Automatic annotation (TrEMBL):
Family label: Belongs to the MnmG family. TrmFO subfamily.
Official protein name in the record: Methylenetetrahydrofolate--tRNA-(uracil-5-)-methyltransferase TrmFO
Top EC group: transferase
An annotated GO cellular component: cytosol
EC number: 2.1.1.74
Main location: cytoplasm
GN (gene name): trmFO
MnmG N-terminal domain residues: 5-342
Function text: Catalyzes the folate-dependent formation of 5-methyl-uridine at position 54 (M-5-U54) in all tRNAs.
Record HAMAP family: TrmFO
Compartments reported by the entry: Cytoplasm
Pfam family, one: GIDA
An example molecular function term from Gene Ontology annotations: tRNA (uracil(54)-C5)-methyltransferase activity, 5,10-methylenetetrahydrofolate-dependent
Reactions listed under catalytic activity: uridine(54) in tRNA + (6R)-5,10-methylene-5,6,7,8-tetrahydrofolate + NADH + H(+) = 5-methyluridine(54) in tRNA + (6S)-5,6,7,8-tetrahydrofolate + NAD(+); uridine(54) in tRNA + (6R)-5,10-methylene-5,6,7,8-tetrahydrofolate + NADPH + H(+) = 5-methyluridine(54) in tRNA + (6S)-5,6,7,8-tetrahydrofolate + NADP(+)
Length: 421
């Protein structure tokens, strides 16, 4: 519907606009579930992962991108495809006839959300998502801050210095927590409840759970050495990650917030190194809508009550850019196969894509269904896998090795079926 109908969070009319962060998280495809998902999507020819690779920024072991260039080129590729027509405008109700994929994202318009509610016969679920602020790099005091990725991760010097770190003493941390807790916050509208997704909690909510919560979360001081005082271990560290290719913008990692704008500038400028910070964007909060997929969708992502409609992306109850894009990619393949009269075999649940699909369609408890990132807890156990923390590294490698083989076989089966036609 953009740019004709905007949202609170989006700033452009481009496709695949990244709002909350510029990171697709870990790119480790051997011992990390989201890195494995990257691998599977690349193997399937994902446009999103192709463009992410083209506009990759140094971020240690993470896959971070220049968000504006990424979105621009995804949009250009879609518009240049002769088989695709891009029609701008709001769809206010679910179509009655034809084959459709509903991938409206977390900010589904009110009228369409109401149409979905009526069609499903169930109340839409919702949680609140928060946006982290972005700082102009030139306003960060590098006499206080230093560049280093946690544990010096990365194969190049650029990757090993991809983050800017602002150290805090115990006294500075305690003062920051006091200011955070006392700051003016955004109020919810009547009837709304703060059902946050735990992987994207506002920092104030984390601080309310305990004064040390942030120090063991986004502000943990481990894996870092202060370049200005190597013998002094920081009590806490605020990290900023590069947000564009020019390196002129940095987002404050994990600092999603629902503080009011005036409070944000006051509180964030108490962070050592950010006393004179200028903000390109302040944080915000918005409502994300998702359906109770375990009760509403079949194993082919079709709405049980109206199987000509598929749902995909974050509205299905997956959380994260990559997970949302993966479900869109899968919905497209399933819809195309159905139209062509092909009988695709079930997606292996041993793969990252299959594990996500299984979770949102049959694996999750509908009564407590909440958005979920991909994680190895969604995968079927490995036979005779060693348990406990000591066996975790080998176990994760076992998950990814098994998944790669099964995903490759699933894709090969589709290619063989199409070649035989």
């Amino acid at each position: 519907m953009r740019p004709k109908v905007g949202t609170f969070a989006h700033k452009t009319g481009d496709l695949a606009e990244m709002v909350c962060s510029n990171s697709f998280r870990s790119d480790d495809d051997e011992r990390n579930a989201v890195g494995l998902l990257h691998w599977e999507m690349r193997a399937a020819g994902s446009l999103v992962l192709e463009m992410a690779g083209r506009h990759r920024l140094p971020a240690g072991g993470a896959l971070a991108v220049d968000r504006e260039a990424f979105s621009r080129d995804v949009t250009a590729a879609i518009r240049a495809n002769p088989l695709i027509s891009v029609v701008e405008g709001e769809i206010a109700s679910l179509p009655e006839d034809g084959t459709w994929i509903v991938a409206t994202g977390p900010l589904t318009s009110g009228s369409l959300a109401e149409s979905i509610r009526v069609a499903t016969g169930a109340e839409s679920l919702a949680f609140f998502d928060a946006i982290a602020p972005i700082v102009h790099a030139e306003t960060i005091d590098m006499d206080v801050a230093w560049r280093q990725s946690r544990y010096d991760k990365g194969e190049t010097e650029e990757e090993r210095t991809a983050y800017i770190n602002c150290p805090m003493t115990r006294e500075q941390y305690e003062a920051f927590i006091d200011a955070l807790l006392a700051a003016d916050k955004t109020e919810f509208h009547e009837g709304e409840t703060a059902g946050y997704f735990d992987g994207c909690l506002p920092i104030e909510v984390m601080a309310e759970r305990g004064r040390e919560t942030l120090r063991f979360g986004p502000m943990k001081p481990v894996g870092l050495t202060n370049a200005h005082a190597r013998d002094v271990k920081p009590y806490a560290v605020v990290q900023l990650r590069r947000d564009n290719a020019l390196g002129t913008l940095y987002n404050i990692v994990g600092f999603q917030t629902k503080m009011k704008y005036g409070a944000q500038t006051a509180v964030f400028r108490t962070i050592p190194g950010l006393e004179s910070a200028s903000f390109a964007r302040l944080g915000g909060i918005h409502r994300n809508t998702f359906i109770n997929s375990p009760t509403l969708l079949d194993d082919r992502m079709r709405l049980k009550l109206r199987p000509n409609l598929r749902f995909a992306g974050q509205i299905t109850g997956v959380e994260g850019y990559v997970e949302s894009a993966a479900m869109g990619m899968l919905a497209g393949r399933l819809a195309a196969a159905e139209i062509r009269g092909e009988a695709l075999p079930p997606v292996p649940t041993t793969t990252a894509v299959g594990a996500l699909l299984s979770h949102i369609t049959v694996g999750a408890d509908a009564k407590t269904f909440q958005p979920m990132n991909v994680n190895f807890g969604l995968f079927p156990p490995l036979p005779e896998a060693r348990g406990g923390r000591r066996g975790r590294t080998d176990r994760y490698k076992g998950y990814t090795d098994r998944a790669k083989g099964d995903w490759t076989a699933w894709l090969s089966g589709q290619a063989s079926a199409q070649a035989a036609e």
